[in-house]
Amino acid sequence: MTDVDYCVVGGGFAGLTAALRLKQAGRSVALLEARDRLGGRTFTEVRADGSWIDRGGAWIGPGQDRISALMNEFGVPSYKQYTDGEAMMVVDGKQHRYEGTIPWTMSPWAAMNLGAVLLELGRMCKSIPLEAPWAAKNAGKWDRISLAQWLNDNVLSKPAHELLETAIAGLYTSAASEVSLLFVLYQMASGGGPGFVLGIKDGAQDARPVGGMGAISRPMAAEIGDSIHLSQPVRRIHQDADGVTIRSDESTVRARRAIVAVPLAIAGQILYEPMLPVDRSFLHQRMPSGSIVKIAAVYDEPFWRGDGLTGQSAAPGSPATITIDACTDTGRPGILCVITEGPVARDLGRLDEAERRKAVIEALVERFGDKAGLPVDYVEQNWSVERYSGGGMLSHAPTGVLTQFGHALREPCGRIHWAGTESSAVMCGWVDGAIRSGERAASEVMEHEAVTVAGGRTSDR
Question: Peptide bond before 427: cis, by omega within 30 degrees of 0?
Fold first, then answer.
């Protein structure tokens, strides 16, 4: 049995941050990670030529101060997302090339409807108290309806509706009918509103770390050192008056407190003794993840740049629903990231590997021309079937969940504390939110650590 001050379950950015801050504070830590790698819902693959592919979370934006602080701490620079040129929308089979956020080359009615809805979403977001979205004035009303219902009631233009449903529901890797409007508003508000969430320049996809997310997680892991234990899926956590006992298939850890930093759907697969409070247990059951397939099509060069395109495109219903330039800071090789989410991703996942590749490449050729049909490499990550993610990239709340069980997102359950991007009131859903949650959880457990009392004994306050 390993005896430590604290045990962290999960080696994504939330768990890594918690373990790092605890170790830097002089505490002993054991970090148990189910996978044979660290990074959680980020996954950086370094290629033989020195370029890299982020198979999971990849981008950073203004206001994401905690990931910026980590990058400064470990000397990881950033570079701006490529935005020189035009983006592309494909609606009703027609291609629209445009600059900025809204494709004004669509019909004036569709473009105006799109802009008006984004403004209204921004207004609604401002009314959400981030620490307690369930306490918003209209929380009950907004939590009773899905994003789909709200879009149906407010977006009259069919092209605008298709684009908004793809862009917004895609954030939650699920159908718009599966997600509560209140949750959408909360998540968007946590990042500053729809302009940031859906934006490239000065938005959530403004920049990337040089070397990918792995350039941050690797030095974090090096500092944590041999406190990390891979391939150790936690099966059981037992807490008693003196501490917690955490058991995986091959190891047992005894600690004062535990930080569980895994996706909500996965947290529910752990056996807790005694049982968790009902609201926390039900939260695990009611906040699932969705489906996402992320693909990197690699070319000798980013040919789309020469064609006056940014590489950013969207085509609702396509096997290549969204694309974005994913080149490294050198611009070579050309890497086009393809993201397909929700029901379309589930459909894509039912095809075999060759059929999926064929469908995606054909969609890219239709959008970008014949050069798109000749990738030198093709890297696919289907997060939908990742056992220890439960899907990707963010657990979402269906209707009724936040108002009933949201208060349990961050509340400790005895000696068990919670981390993960879903539990962050700021930048919920991004790597920055995961880092914030890890720092919060580390602070929480240290606030409760043993202090000397009369007679030389210790108690856990």
Answer: no
Of 190-194, 307-311, 376-380, 451-455, which range is least confident? 451-455
Instruction: Check residue 458 and give its pLDDT.
Output: 44
C-alpha span between 11 and 31 (Å, rounded): 7
Distance CA 274, CA 76 (A): 43
Torsions phi, psi for 3 (to 5 deg): -115, 120
Tell me what percent of the chain is helix, strand and coil, each rounded to the nearest 5. 40, 25, 40
Q: What is the pTM of this model?
A: 0.96
- pLDDT at residue 293 greater than cutoff 90: yes
Question: d(Cα 193, Cα 101) in Å, to the nearest integer?
Answer: 14
DSSP H helix total and E strand total for the chain: 16, 23
349 Cβ neighbours under 8 A, 6+ residues apart: 291, 293, 356, 382, 384, 385
Q: Are the beta carbons of 421 and 435 closer than 8 angstroms?
A: no
Are 299 and 400 in contact by the 8 Å Cβ rule? The answer is no
Q: 455 pLDDT exceeds 60?
A: no
Q: Give me the residues paired with residue 79 across strands.
A: 208
- CA 332, 337, 427, 264 dihedral sign is negative
